[in-house]
């Protein structure tokens, strides 16, 4: 579904990714874990084409998207829940969702809106509320809902647990599990390694711009190195 | 706390003295060929010191005064009321607006020529402010050179009529489209810029256009401007005493009424009114369309908007272009109303005033912007009695406005429910 082949990414002269290869197969949940500054967000941004990879290839469903502009990539069946949620705080919940389905027809929007409300009944209650006035968990739900509005085949989540209460995190991860059942491929980037690996079919460990380890989620959880470095021993 | 208050109040009073004494306390008087400085009369100087005293007292008790005022407004404005049902509100709103427009249609026939002329100017500012509202209020792109597009519209008509004899009705769409093209052209280099940087570049663009008009003497007449711009015609009927254009007839002869200079003024007013209404309706439509929401989304969060597949280029350029289009509209009407234009009409102050209208009215709100345009244009006229102090009063009014209603006269309202504050 999504393949990164030996991707190098630069910010100006500084190389942030030193040849990263990642593969996400259809229907999988793949987690990418790593410490601060390891390049997790850079990797996602490279997939979105902002910044573009300086060498290597990014392939989405067999199509080379390495040099495509961001707007075009984001319209081809892939959706991202950006780090820190980034909802439109001045717009209402409903308007936020409609923005997610910007390139769909009205009928499709209505359908996916209903679907999102089924997943997150909380959002339905807050339909006409300004998004910025909701709690962090609700905003994260909205961010995920907004990403789902475009009916993506694949969804990328950047740190969905950031700054949320443990109970809410649990809820969010349940939803992510549910997305897989609907046939959506999930690429999850997390610092919260334990929960991310628990949920994932496979996982990658990114360290200073390189993939250090890759294995199934269970094996990574059991791996002593991972336990020491990311799971607090 | 008290000591600090006194210190602060003293400081403010001294500042008041420093600012106002040189301006009000001295007069320049011409004696023969020399200009001498004469101290103002005693009442003015008393006034200055009195003002300083008022500032001192106000600053001293500022907290309690502002606190009381705050209580008053929260009591009266009823901010915690449940919002009206949406369809009901929209219905009332549209009825009221239709009523106002109908009133505005018949109003000039009962008013003096000067008042109608002023109203035409107000309508031109309404068009400009509505256009800038798209760029600044909705798309959140701070444009300090908006007057450039206004100038493009005005000069397009002036030049076309001077060199090619094009009439108002032909020049109107051409001027607007040309202004829109300039908006597009300006849009490209500033796409990557945001906030302060964008403001500076647009400011520069506004100046470039003005300086170009000022110096391209062979084409634009430079600082001498262009005169003799024809008035608009009504289906080939002219409003002048004598018919100038070939094949045209004159309005008063066709309808067999006595010639009156007022006909032209009223006609121009009606054109401006119709165009202003069209501007408002078209932009209102845009706001409800996906592109309007895309503008707002880009303003709220650029990264999120891009993550949803919106193209930053397309959204920003569309805002710039549409904003500029209506400035071109306004410019054409302005050129026709004045009959003479020169680069002096398109200085930075104009941009600043239009921006002030948008901010005062409440960013993104159409009704607010219309109200603010009326207030900002008429206030200096009303304050004419105070002659040289009128800009002072204007400035003071703006400062007060921003202190009490920083969100603008009528901030943009979206239907939403607010949680009641817990007492």
Automatic annotation (TrEMBL), chain A:
Query: What are the transmembrane regions?
Result: none
Positions of the ABC transporter domain: 2-233
Taxonomically, which superkingdom?
Answer: Bacteria
For this chain, one GO molecular function annotation is: ATP binding
| Pfam families for this protein | ABC_tran
Question: Is Methyltransferase found in the keyword set?
Answer: no
InterPro entries given for it? AAA+_ATPase, ABC_branched_ATPase_LivF/BraG, ABC_transporter-like_ATP-bd, ABC_transporter-like_CS, BCAA_Transport_ATP-bd_LivF, P-loop_NTPase
Keyword terms of this UniProt record: Amino-acid transport, ATP-binding, Nucleotide-binding, Transport
The UniProt similarity line reads: Belongs to the ABC transporter superfamily.
Protein name stated in the entry? High-affinity branched-chain amino acid transport ATP-binding protein
Source organism of this protein record: Marinobacter albus
Lineage, highest ranks first = Bacteria, Pseudomonadati, Pseudomonadota, Gammaproteobacteria, Pseudomonadales
UniProtKB/TrEMBL annotation, chain B:
* Species: Marinobacter albus
Q: Which Pfam families match?
A: BPD_transp_2 (PF02653), DUF3382 (PF11862)
Localization, per the record, is: Cell inner membrane
Q: Which residues form the High-affinity branched-chain amino acid transport system permease LivHM N-terminal domain?
A: 4-107
Q: How does it sit in the membrane?
A: Multi-pass membrane protein
Annotated protein name in UniProt: High-affinity branched-chain amino acid ABC transporter permease LivM
Entry-linked NCBIfam families: PRK11301.1 (NF008450)
Question: Transmembrane region positions?
Answer: 35-58, 92-110, 122-142, 147-164, 170-190, 197-213, 265-283, 314-334, 346-379, 391-407
Spell out the PANTHER family in the cross-references: HIGH-AFFINITY BRANCHED-CHAIN AMINO ACID TRANSPORT SYSTEM PERMEASE (PTHR30482), HIGH-AFFINITY BRANCHED-CHAIN AMINO ACID TRANSPORT SYSTEM PERMEASE PROTEIN LIVM (PTHR30482:SF20)
- Keywords for the protein's UniProt record, in alphabetical order: Cell membrane, Membrane, Transmembrane, Transmembrane helix
> Entry's InterPro entries?
ABC_transp_permease, LivHM_N, LivM-like
């Amino acid at each position: 579904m999504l393949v990164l082949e030996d991707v190098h990414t630069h910010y100006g002269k500084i190389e942030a990714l030193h040849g990263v290869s990642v593969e996400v197969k259809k229907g999988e949940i793949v987690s990418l874990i790593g410490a601060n500054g390891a390049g997790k967000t850079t990797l996602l941004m490279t997939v979105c084409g902002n910044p573009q990879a300086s060498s290597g290839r990014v392939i989405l469903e067999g199509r080379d998207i390495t040099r495509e502009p961001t707007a075009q990539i984001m319209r081809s069946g892939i959706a991202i829940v950006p780090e820190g949620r980034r909802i439109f705080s001045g717009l209402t919940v409903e308007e936020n969702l409609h923005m997610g389905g910007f390139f769909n027809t009205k009928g499709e929007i209505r359908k996916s809106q209903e679907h999102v409300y089924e997943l997150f009944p909380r959002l339905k209650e807050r339909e006409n509320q300004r998004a910025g006035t909701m709690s962090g968990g609700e905003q994260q739900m909205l961010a995920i809902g907004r990403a789902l509005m475009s009916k993506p085949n694949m969804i990328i989540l950047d740190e969905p647990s950031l700054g949320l209460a443990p109970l809410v995190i649990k809820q969010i991860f349940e939803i992510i599990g549910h997305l897989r059942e609907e046939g959506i491929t999930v690429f999850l980037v997390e610092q919260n390694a334990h929960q991310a690996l628990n949920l994932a079919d496979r996982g990658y460990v990114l360290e200073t711009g390189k993939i250090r380890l890759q294995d199934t989620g269970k094996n990574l959880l059991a791996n002593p190195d991972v336990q020491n470095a990311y799971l607090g021993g | 706390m008290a000591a600090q208050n006194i210190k602060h109040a003293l400081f403010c009073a001294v500042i008041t003295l420093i600012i106002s004494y040189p301006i009000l306390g001295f007069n320049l008087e011409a004696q023969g060929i020399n200009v001498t400085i004469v101290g103002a009369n005693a009442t003015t100087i008393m006034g200055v010191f009195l003002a300083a005293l008022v500032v001192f007292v106000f600053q001293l008790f500022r907290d309690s005064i502002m606190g009381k005022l705050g209580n008053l407004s929260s009591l009266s404005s009823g901010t915690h009321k449940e919002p009206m049902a949406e369809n009901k509100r929209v219905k009332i709103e549209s009825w009221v607006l239709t009523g106002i427009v109908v009133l505005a249609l018949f109003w000039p026939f009962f008013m003096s020529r000067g008042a109608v002329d002023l109203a035409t100017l107000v309508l031109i500012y309404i068009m400009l402010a509505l256009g800038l509202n798209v760029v600044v209020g909705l798309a959140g792109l701070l444009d300090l050179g908006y007057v450039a597009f206004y100038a493009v519209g005005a000069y397009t008509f002036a030049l076309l009529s001077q060199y090619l004899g094009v009439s108002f009705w032909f020049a109107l769409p051409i001027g607007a489209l040309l202004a829109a093209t300039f908006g597009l052209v300006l849009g490209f280099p500033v796409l990557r810029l945001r906030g302060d940087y964008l403001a500076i570049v647009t400011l520069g663009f506004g100046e470039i256009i003005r300086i170009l008009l000022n110096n391209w003497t062979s084409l634009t007449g430079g600082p001498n401007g262009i005169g003799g711009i024809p008035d608009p015609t009504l289906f080939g009927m002219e409003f002048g005493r004598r018919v100038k254009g070939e094949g045209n007839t004159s309005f008063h002869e066709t309808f067999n009424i006595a010639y009156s200079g007022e006909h032209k003024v009223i006609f121009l007013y009606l054109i401006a009114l119709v165009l202003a209404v069209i501007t408002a309706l078209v932009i209102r439509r845009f706001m409800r369309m996906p592109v309007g929401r895309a503008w707002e989304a880009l303003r709220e969060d650029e990264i999120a908007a891009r993550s949803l597949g919106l193209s930053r280029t397309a959204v920003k350029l569309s805002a710039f272009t549409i904003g500029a289009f209506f400035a071109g509209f306004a410019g054409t009407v302005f050129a026709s109303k004045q009959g003479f234009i020169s680069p002096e009409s398109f200085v930075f102050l104009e941009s600043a005033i239009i921006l002030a209208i948008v901010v005062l009215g409440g960013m993104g709100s159409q009704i607010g912007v219309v109200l603010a345009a009326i207030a900002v244009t008429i206030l200096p006229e009303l304050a004419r009695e105070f002659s040289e102090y009128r800009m002072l009063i204007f400035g003071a009014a703006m400062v007060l406005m921003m202190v009490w209603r920083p969100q603008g006269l009528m901030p943009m309202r979206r239907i939403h429910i607010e949680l009641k504050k817990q007492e």
